[in-house]
Amino acid sequence: MRSRSIGRRPRSAYPVLLLLAPALAAGCAAGSRPTATPTNVWDGPSAVPTAEQSAPPTPTPGVPSPSPSPTRTELRHVFPVRADNVAYHPTHSAYPGTDIFADCGEPVVAVTDGRILEVSRVDRFDERGPLGPYNGGLSVSLLGDDGVRYYGSHLSAVSAGVTAGARVRAGQQLGRVGRTGNANNVCHLHFGISPACRGHDDWWIRRGVIWPARYLDSWRKRGNRAPAAEVVAWQRKHGCPKAPTTTSGAG
Q1: How many Cβ atoms from other residues are within 10 Å of residue 18's Cβ?
Q2: How far apart are the C-alpha atoms of 114 and 143, rounded to whole Å?
Q3: SS3 of 56, please?
Q4: Fewest CB within a 10 Å sphere: which of 83, 88, 98, 238?
Q5: In this structure, how many other beta carbons lie within 10 angstroms of the beta carbon of residue 72?
Q6: Is 64 exposed, middle or buried, given 0-12, 13-18 or 19+ CB atoms closer than 10 A?
Q7: Residue 39: its pLDDT value, please?
Q8: 159 vs 43, which has greater pLDDT?
Q9: pLDDT class for 5, splitting at 50, 70, 90?
């Protein structure tokens, strides 16, 4: 997809970043984190849906959430960053996910039609801990109409109107690439694909459970490869596992 930026030519810096990213140890610059009141730290599913919205299902403790539907293959999927100068690696440290490297400020968009499930508008990451729940900094997760949750983190900003329960369309802007959370001061979008198990408490699942690269490859070429069937298979095998006893430095 083409960026709205005019005259930008691809640069060679991002392949180098892909090689260096696993070894980056420096935290985000303190001055790079947006500030806001603690009351807006995390928006859960809307309690009162609008006329166009139906209330999200309330999970029952101990019972896995409904599985994604692999039949909605007609849903359009788009690449999550709207820019020309992007790069990503097929693997990721410690768990399935992808870091998409792009300039800070580039638009992050909805991968498919769906409803905003979770929003973090405050960077609460602290390298002293607790690690895990706050690694992503500013982030948005979308529950697609295919039943799949798509997660993007380390944003520099979340777009106005992107709140839990809001309906969005494929390609609609959700925020901008940034380096909040434990992004190691490198502009990128952490992108994860998962089933929606227990809302914002399941950060270890939200960050990603299947490898996104082959779907990103398709969407970048304007294909429409759908991850719902793979997510269904993963959840049938694993359910909604408990939080790990240890956590990595990725978000």
Answers
A1: 15
A2: 6
A3: coil
A4: 238
A5: 16
A6: middle
A7: 33
A8: 159
A9: very low
